[in-house]
């Protein structure tokens, strides 16, 4: 790489201060309040958090460095079609608020997967917990890898060094501070993220002459696209894939994911949790839309001199930090503040993951095993000690997985692929439990494992085509570059051909858009689960009439209550009729006997 500006001492100082603030927040909550001595305080903050920090935390849990780097690169490279996904966030919010959330609040369990044991059995709980492990560990690796890209693009420090440094800092403060430290760093992170995005848009608007000019340059570069309505599932982004796929991804993250469920339980009641979730929706949409626009702002600078073609950077995910260094390097400390924002974003997201992984491991595996073989329970002190050790260990594992994240493509697509492949089947499991009375444990386990196997093959099978990129050029660069305009012209034509037709020489399932992974996983799990459950119920006596109605969506629970009350009323009427008939017959017999005697 060449022509990369590097950070100055003021920038490094700012980064160091931000990292120490994150560490300081963890240390503060380790020695304040209840000092993280109980499981309730460590994992759900003793249900004492207010609505606003929880609302912000719900947004930035999965929208950290991946949002800043990935979404901006997405709009620069592929156009604005991705912004349509925001419609799915609005559609999905009421489903979470009035469907999934009331069930978890009534359960009041540290692990969301305790629900599955109550609804189906221990095998389902173990399976889902293990699948969640895979999902969150892979995602943590991607989130840890994303900030290392920013550091490499701006300072020349290797990805290896930055991954290890950031991972160790995160493992330390998240293991000692508990969920309170995680939530407060989320608020801190969100402020830095918004500041970074608005600064980028502001600088770009100043340089080119206003927001309208940014839009016009993007339009001329074929970046403005909102009309992709093709039903073809091999087209990367369309209204169908973004709304349907985005909805399933949103529900799998906000509805049934341990991280979000755990955060929702840190407020005092269900009404507060619903308010926090509704408040998180506009924050999420504003962050998403402005980050999309920041990609166009970056394009306004590089539309005639693409840094990828110049070989200044090796990945589109480096575009934003490169832009920051190209435009802000003369302002000491400002690039450092931006990079610190990316670090803070990654740190907070990983810390949430580590805290949740520790909760699931302790509640779903270690406690039941210890109880089974010793017939005793962990003491509160031992439980929190083990939880902190687990959080740190998972941090080390995340560091190892971060080195594999670069094999998954761009960070945005990598993150959404992981959530689609694993989140879709998990959404199917919980929907079968909460939305149907007929689903059985055998049907759920078999259908989930089938869906996961199919999706992992479909998502990671090789060889697969590269996503088509929109045309770029270097005609505005210094002509001493190694590439020529003729070469760029050919690449533009080839790109346009692939964009319109795709490459049919690849296996069809490998060409399907990653946005369809979550809907496919959900449908396979749900439909196959119902079918297999129906077969098992033919031979096994149904036990579902004994299930607690609180394990179902409120609308289903009301129907169950109504049916049971009706059954009781019918039974009472039948009993009353039988008693009346019995009394009447006795009376006749007595009267007959009296007549005979007379």
What would you say this structure looks like, in words?
The chain is mainly alpha-helical and 598 residues long. The protein folds into two domains: 9-539, Up-down Bundle (Sodium/glucose cotransporter); 553-597. Helix content is 74%, strand content 0%. The chain is built from 21 helices and no strands. Helix 8 crosses helix 12 and helix 8 (159-208) packs across helix 14. The longest helix is centred in the first third of the chain and has 50 residues, at 159-208. Residues 481-502 and 588-598 have low confidence and may be disordered.
* Cα separation of the termini: 121 Å
Largest sheet: none
Helix content: over 70%
Q: Tell me, briefly, the overall form.
A: globular
CATH top level of the largest domain is Mainly Alpha
The CATH topology annotation of the largest domain reads as Sodium/glucose cotransporter
Low-confidence segments: 481-502, 588-598
- Radius of gyration, in Å, reads 28 Å
Q: In DSSP terms, counting alpha (H) and pi (I) runs of 4 or more, how many helices?
A: 21
CATH homologous group name of the largest domain: Sodium/glucose cotransporter
Structural class: mainly alpha
The total of beta strands comes to: 0
* Architecture per CATH nomenclature, i.e. the level-2 architecture of the largest domain: Up-down Bundle
Strand content: under 5%
Total domain units: 2
**Average pLDDT rating:** 81
Order of helices and strands: HHHHHHHHHHHHHHHHHHHHH
């Amino acid at each position: 790489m060449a022509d990369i500006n590097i950070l100055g001492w003021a920038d490094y100082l700012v980064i160091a201060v931000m990292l120490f603030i994150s560490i300081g927040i963890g240390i503060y909550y380790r020695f304040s309040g209840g000092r993280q001595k109980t499981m309730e305080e460590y994992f759900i903050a003793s249900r004492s958090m207010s609505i606003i920090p929880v609302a912000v935390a719900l947004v930035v849990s999965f929208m950290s460095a991946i949002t800043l780097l990935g979404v901006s690169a997405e709009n620069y490279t592929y156009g604005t079609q991705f912004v349509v996904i925001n419609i799915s966030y609005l559609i999905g919010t009421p489903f979470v608020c009035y469907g999934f959330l009331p069930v978890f609040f009534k359960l009041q369990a540290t692990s969301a997967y305790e629900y599955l044991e109550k609804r189906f059995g221990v095998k389902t709980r173990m399976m889902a917990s293990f699948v969640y492990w895979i999902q969150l560990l892979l995602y943590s690796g991607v989130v840890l890898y994303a900030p290392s890209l920013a550091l490499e693009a701006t300072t020349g420090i290797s990805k290896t060094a930055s991954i290890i440094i950031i991972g160790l800092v995160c493992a330390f403060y998240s293991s000692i501070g508990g969920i309170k430290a995680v939530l407060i760093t989320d608020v801190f992170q969100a402020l830095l993220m918004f500041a970074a995005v608005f600064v980028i848009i502001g600088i770009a608007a100043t340089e080119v002459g206003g927001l309208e000019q940014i839009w016009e340059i993007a339009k001329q570069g074929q970046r403005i696209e909102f009309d992709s309505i093709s039903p073809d599932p091999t087209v990367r982004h369309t209204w169908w894939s973004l709304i349907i796929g985005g909805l399933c991804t949103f529900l799998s993250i906000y509805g049934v994911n341990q991280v979000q469920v755990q955060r929702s339980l840190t407020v005092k009641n269900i009404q507060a949790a619903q308010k926090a979730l509704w408040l998180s929706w506009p924050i999420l949409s504003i962050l998403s839309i402005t980050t999309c626009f920041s990609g166009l702002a970056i394009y306004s600078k590089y539309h005639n001199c693409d840094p990828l073609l110049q070989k200044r950077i090796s990945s589109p995910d480096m575009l934003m930090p490169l832009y920051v260094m190209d435009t802000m390097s003369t302002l000491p400390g400002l690039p450092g503040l931006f990079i610190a924002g990316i670090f803070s974003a990654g740190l907070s997201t990983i810390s949430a993951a580590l805290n949740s992984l520790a909760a699931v491991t302790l509640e779903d595996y270690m406690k039941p095993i210890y109880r089974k073989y010793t017939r005793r329970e962990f003491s509160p002190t031992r439980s929190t000690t083990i939880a902190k050790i687990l959080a740190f260990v998972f941090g080390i594992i995340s560091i190892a997985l971060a080195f594999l994240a670069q094999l998954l493509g761009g960070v945005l697509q990598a993150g959404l692929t992981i959530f689609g492949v694993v989140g879709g089947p998990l959404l199917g499991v919980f929907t079968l439990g909460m939305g149907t009375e007929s689903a059985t444990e055998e049907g759920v386990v078999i259908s989930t494992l089938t869906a996961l196997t199919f999706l992992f093959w479909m998502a990671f099978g090789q060889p697969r085509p590269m996503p088509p990129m929109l045309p770029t050029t270097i005609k505005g660069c210094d002509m001493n570059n190694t590439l020529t305009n003729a070469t760029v012209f050919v690449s533009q034509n080839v790109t346009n051909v692939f964009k319109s037709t795709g490459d049919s020489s690849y296996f069809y399932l490998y060409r399907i858009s990653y946005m369809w992974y979550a809907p496919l996983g959900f449908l396979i799990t749900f439909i196959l689960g119902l079918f297999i459950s129906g077969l098992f119920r033919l031979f096994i006596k149904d036990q579902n009439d004994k299930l607690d109605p609180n394990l179902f969506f409120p609308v289903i629970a009301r129907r169950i209550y109504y049916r049971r009350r009706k059954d009781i009323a019918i039974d009472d009427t039948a009993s009353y009729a039988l008693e009346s008939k019995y009394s009447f017959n006795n009376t006749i017999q007595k009267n007959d006997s009296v007549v005979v005697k007379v």
